[in-house]
Amino acid sequence: MEHLYIKSRNGSDRTLVLFHGTGGRETDLLEVATMVNASANVLALRGAVEENGQARYFRRLSPREYDQESLRREGMKTASSIRELASEYKLDMAKAVYIGYSNGANMAAHLLLNHDIPVAGAMLMHPAYRSKLVEREIMLHSSVLLTAGARDMTATAGEAYELKQSLELKGASVEVKLTDGGHEIVSEELMEGHVWYLRVDGMMDDS
């Protein structure tokens, strides 16, 4: 899987795993990562599926309907890649956090709900997990921040709350932060993400 790895300059054992939105690339969320934790390792993944020339993590049948088989298949490939890359770069996934936006947030949500990678948490911006794919045996011990825009018609606030319920049923601790924005990432989300991460970071030290 195409990716970008940036090793922490101060030897931190924290890692941020980045998932871009539709049409993005692995460099898109580097500024978000810097805002959340500038000293962490960064592992940024590029979506392996192409839709109308744009990179995504899984296919769609229409703008609001997922190709469920593609989601399942690409989810397995992505989880396998993360495990391999974590081994290659000697990353402690128990001290890692997913950060995803839009399509990338949906893939990260899929990984949380279906693949037993023991991340400490996830910051999912503008998610809309339109799938019943949930592995019942996996229980989460992660902290999750969901952000949504009140004027977002692509991934609605209601869909963020539906994902919150799905994650909580798996044992995750989940909070939703609403902004007045649309589908774009706004500065308020980054500030919320930084404050949220400080709490998660402290819990990593206590574990």
Q: Which strand order do you get reading across the main beta sheet?
A: 1-3-2-8-9-10-11
Characterize the biggest β-sheet.
7 strands, mixed
The helix tally amounts to: 5
Classify the beta-strand content into a percent band: 15-25%
| Helical proportion, percent range | 25-40%
Rounded to an integer, what's the Rg over CA atoms?
A: 15 Å
What coarse outline follows from CA principal-axis ratios?
Answer: globular
User: Strand pairing plus helix content: what structural class?
Assistant: alpha/beta
SSE pattern, N- to C-terminal: EEHEEEEEHEHEEHEH
Low-confidence stretches: none
Distance between the termini: 31 Å
How many strand elements?
11
| Overall mean confidence score, pLDDT | 96
Explained architecture:
This protein is of the alpha/beta class. About 35% of the residues lie in helices and about 25% in strands. The chain has helices spanning about 30-35, 70-90, 105-115, 155-170, 185-205; strands at about 5, 15-20, 40-45, 50, 55, 60, 65, 95-100, 120-125, 145-150, 175-180. The strands form three sheets. A seven-stranded mixed sheet has the order 1-3-2-8-9-10-11, sandwiched between helices. Strand 10 (about 145-150), helix 4 and strand 11 (about 175-180) form a beta-alpha-beta unit. It is globular, with a radius of gyration of 15 Å. The protein starts with a strand and ends with a helix.
Summarize the structure.
By secondary structure, the chain is α/β, with parallel strands linked by helices.
